[in-house]
TrEMBL record:
<dbReference type="Pfam" id="PF00389">
    <property type="entry name" value="2-Hacid_dh"/>
</dbReference>
<dbReference type="Pfam" id="PF02826">
    <property type="entry name" value="2-Hacid_dh_C"/>
</dbReference>
<dbReference type="GO" id="GO:0016616">
    <property type="term" value="F:oxidoreductase activity, acting on the CH-OH group of donors, NAD or NADP as acceptor"/>
</dbReference>
<comment type="similarity">
    <text>Belongs to the D-isomer specific 2-hydroxyacid dehydrogenase family.</text>
</comment>
<dbReference type="GO" id="GO:0008652">
    <property type="term" value="P:amino acid biosynthetic process"/>
</dbReference>
<dbReference type="InterPro" id="IPR036291">
    <property type="entry name" value="NAD(P)-bd_dom_sf"/>
</dbReference>
<keyword id="KW-0028">Amino-acid biosynthesis</keyword>
<dbReference type="InterPro" id="IPR029752">
    <property type="entry name" value="D-isomer_DH_CS1"/>
</dbReference>
<keyword id="KW-0520">NAD</keyword>
<dbReference type="InterPro" id="IPR050857">
    <property type="entry name" value="D-2-hydroxyacid_DH"/>
</dbReference>
<keyword id="KW-0560">Oxidoreductase</keyword>
<feature type="compositionally biased region" description="Polar residues">
    <location>
        <begin position="35"/>
        <end position="47"/>
    </location>
</feature>
<dbReference type="GO" id="GO:0051287">
    <property type="term" value="F:NAD binding"/>
</dbReference>
<feature type="region of interest" description="Disordered">
    <location>
        <begin position="11"/>
        <end position="47"/>
    </location>
</feature>
<dbReference type="InterPro" id="IPR006139">
    <property type="entry name" value="D-isomer_2_OHA_DH_cat_dom"/>
</dbReference>
<feature type="domain" description="D-isomer specific 2-hydroxyacid dehydrogenase catalytic">
    <location>
        <begin position="106"/>
        <end position="415"/>
    </location>
</feature>
<dbReference type="InterPro" id="IPR029753">
    <property type="entry name" value="D-isomer_DH_CS"/>
</dbReference>
Amino acid sequence: MRPFRLRSRLTWPITPPNRPTASLTERTSSHRLPRTSSVNSSSHCRTSIPSRSLATMVQVTQLKVAVLDDYQDISEPQFQKLDKSLFDIVTIKDTLLPYNHPETPAYVKDALVSRLEPFDVICTMRERTPFPKDLITRLPNLKLLLTTGLRNNSLDLPAFRDRGIPVAGTAGTADKPTNIGTNIGTNSTTEHCVALILALARNVAADDLAVKSGLWQTTTATGMAGKTLGVLGLGRLGVSTAKIMRLAFGMRVVAWSTNLTQEAADEKARAEGLPVEGPDGEKTFKLVSREELFASADVLSVHLVLSDRSRGIVGAEDLARMKKTAFLINTSRGPLVNEKDLLDTLNKGAIRGCALDVHDIEPLPVDSVWRTTEWGRDGRSRVLLSPHMGYVEEESLSAWYAQQVDNIKRWQAGDVLFNQLA
């Protein structure tokens, strides 16, 4: 199908009105199960009945389960473990349209509802498909919503509670033990953040393209040794990134967030096995003002949690304080940084470069300026983009899908859900 283009460069895979629309089967990767006996789909039925006994008692429609946004086709081995006589599973690999985007037209919202309306159980992957209240109220068959992780700001949890629809997440797969018997406090997002810092500073993507295009040494790299890392948000991911960059490259670390104190920063350093201060008496994780954070950082890495209070927290004034040679890295959430202000900064070449793993709209529209602008040319800053890969590891996704399958079984049996959010 040809993409429909909205006025502000949004592109959705949806057919406009008065044109033939592909069937649900054509638009999804479907794992259809035989329609035999199943449990009663009512949310009030919580008594576990052996399927064999049930099959002899009554013929009931299978529960319909949607697995949304499985880009890499990882869910199938886990969801095949569900009883095929009880569940009809449909895997949808393309991202559904964001119902709550201000420029999404009514017919697109209707198309989203039509796609989701048949399902009793919906399994989501992180924030790839938002569920605002207006969408939830239009899904009368929905009885269970499963997400991944323990925090998902794209779900209107009060609206789910009002409807009596349980919502559950998954436990994280964060810190990983090493073969030397210690925990280095890193995880997939931290690894990706460090990779972006180094790839941007060393021009890895641009140099790869240059060599493959017949060129050689078109620019210079930026070293990290002895430079200053600014950490906006000294939580678990901010700490693990700061630790790696300090130990590996000897970077000076400064940090700021609204409620951070120097005592808390010292305790975080101590918990990571780091000295509270260096030989020169400077703190390992030094609390500075917001103004000094942006002004002094050679690399500014964003690690805040997105909330109503933190949305757009990085704006024009902060960006204007940054050095012309500085890099901005965001592996947290796109809306933490005001997109218009960032684009203005980069188009003027006011900082050396920017690496983004997260974006205001995901996936990025095909004609987004982030995709179409020739970054690093004509005075513009360098820009390195990745498609929100910070959490995308096969073992992590597979583990999350396994937990979703387990919660479906628990819900069907009337047991308490793991990691229930609503």
